[in-house]
Design a protein that fits this description.
Distance between the termini: 58 Å
Radius of gyration: 18 Å
Helix content: over 70%
Order of helices and strands: HHH
CATH topology: Methane Monooxygenase Hydroxylase, Chain G, domain 1
Number of strands: 0
CATH superfamily: Ribosomal protein S20
CATH class: Mainly Alpha
Shape: elongated
Length: 89
């Protein structure tokens, strides 16, 4: 355990940030799973409505450093590609 007050404060800040980041990552996973389940059920129009929210959440997470911006772009690209493939099928 750290002794200095500044180190204790840093620990508190780190724990709070860790919880916030964990919540955001969990929400991203949940929304992605919901989108994929809509595509499995052939509900393409509902998936198109949800992709905007998912993309927005990924962009926000990338801007705050929770996920890397290239990772966010990769996930958004793959999800959009699946939606477009399902629409044509």
């Amino acid at each position: 355990m750290p002794i200095k007050h500044a180190a204790l404060k840093q620990l508190r800040k780190d724990r709070k940030r860790q919880q916030r980041n964990q919540a955001v990552r969990s929400e991203l996973k949940t929304l992605t799973k919901r989108l994929l389940s809509l595509l499995r059920d052939r509900k393409v129009e509902e998936a198109r409505g949800l992709i905007h929210l998912v993309a927005k959440k990924y962009d926000r997470a990338a801007s705050t450093g929770i996920v890397h911006r290239n990772t966010a772009g990769r996930y958004k690209s793959r999800l959009m590609r699946r939606i477009n493939r399902a629409a044509t099928a």
